[in-house]
């Protein structure tokens, strides 16, 4: 999808999305008022944002393998850390929403597909000292910087796995019974995203939460989002335009919300 189409879609979303007054589900209403719309600025945010500022100034060049959408082959490229921080890391608004979701639901076993420099991972880690986060990153040089970043932030509850999701995810799932929280943030193409979703579905429970990044980024991602909504195991979904939340709670009736964020 080109940028202009995305901007038009975003404005449509801003106009048509629901606000809290339109929500009748008690679960979603509470989530909206307590978590999604809670704009408190916390000191831990400053810690991670200070690190982001340093990364944004870091002109070190690194060689990376491009695994993500947009590349037909796994091309190798040279990029500065600053450019990766600018283009790949979740913006504060969304990273802080991840923090609040983790703080609110207190998932213990978390998985992230797509570590990059570790900004979103750091936010999720800072939300709970008892959680255990496994994060997978294809590019070894990027993963090494993420590991340095976790050390700089005194974070020790993160396990970084380096390698292609296609290879590492099945191995990890073989040794994991369930994940409480999964953040899908890499390889934004239809077939791979669907297959990661389907693989993780086998390892969810009633209260697991799946978060998908960039659900409107391309037509392929919009198709995936529609298929996820239709999945019989999914009950509630919340479309926040740049991010989509998925719940499996059997006590909720199947309903799809688009909420202004
Ligand atoms: C958007 S970035 C992740 C950003 C990070 N979650 C954050 O917000 O700070 C996506 C990352 O996923 C990695 N990636 C994409 N496709 C992959 C694949 N098939 N296997 C492993 N890593 C992959 C890319 O190398 C990239 O670093």
How would you characterize this protein structure?
The chain is built from ten helices and ten strands. The protein is α/β, with parallel strands linked by helices and 261 residues long. It has a single domain (3-57, 88-258), classed as Vaccinia Virus protein VP39 (Rossmann fold, 3-Layer(aba) Sandwich), CATH 3.40.50. A hairpin with an 8-residue loop joins strand 1 and strand 2 (75-80). The protein is globular and about 50 Å long. Bound molecules: S-adenosylmethionine (SAM). The site of S-adenosylmethionine has 21 residues, from helix 6, strand 4 and helix 8.
CATH homologous superfamily?
A: Vaccinia Virus protein VP39
Which cofactor or ligand species appear?
Answer: S-adenosylmethionine
In CATH terms, what is the fold-level topology? Rossmann fold
- What spatial form do the alpha-carbon principal axes imply? globular
Unreliable stretches covering 5 or more consecutive residues? none
Summed up:
With 261 residues, the chain is α/β, with parallel strands linked by helices.
Output the keywords.
alpha/beta; Rossmann fold; eight-stranded mixed sheet; globular; binds S-adenosylmethionine
